[in-house]
Write the structure tokens for this entry.
Amino acid sequence: MRSRIVLCFGLLFLLGAALPASAHVTEHCTVGFYKNHTQFLNNGTCTKYVFDKDTLVSTLFPDVDACVGAFTLEGLLDASSSACGPASSIAGGEIIMLRQAIARLANAANSTPPSCDAVNATVRISNHWIDIAASTDNRDVLIILSQQFDTLNQGSCTLQ
């Protein structure tokens, strides 16, 4: 229980540190939007992480469960939380969190101007918490991060 509290506070601190990078993300489209508009699943002019709808999840998130990593970004958006085992498993938590992270990446890359620092921070934060979840067998940190990304993905979506 104590380790969960420490992990949750650590996650909130890390997310708080990333908020300045999020301040100039101007797109707030949801996972559902990107499922139906995959042409926007790309890195735009950001160059540190290059991706599109056909990029394997493991390219951006190398430490995910092998089953999760084998999905393309587009495929993961459509994947059931139980596509790689029980939804209550670490892999299920990775799928839940990564759906929101992928939308966050696309929102940052498609912002005006593109928010490449938010793209970079989203990949870095996601990978950090994937590693912690796997090493502590604690799916809850992935769900908390998913909820934070979901909140950031809500708002005005001007992409057409």
Remarks:
- The chain has a mean pLDDT of 90.
- The longest helix spans residues 2-22.
- The helical segments are 2-22, 31-36, 57-60, 66-69, 73-78, 90-109, 116-136, 140-152.
- Residues 2-152 form one domain.
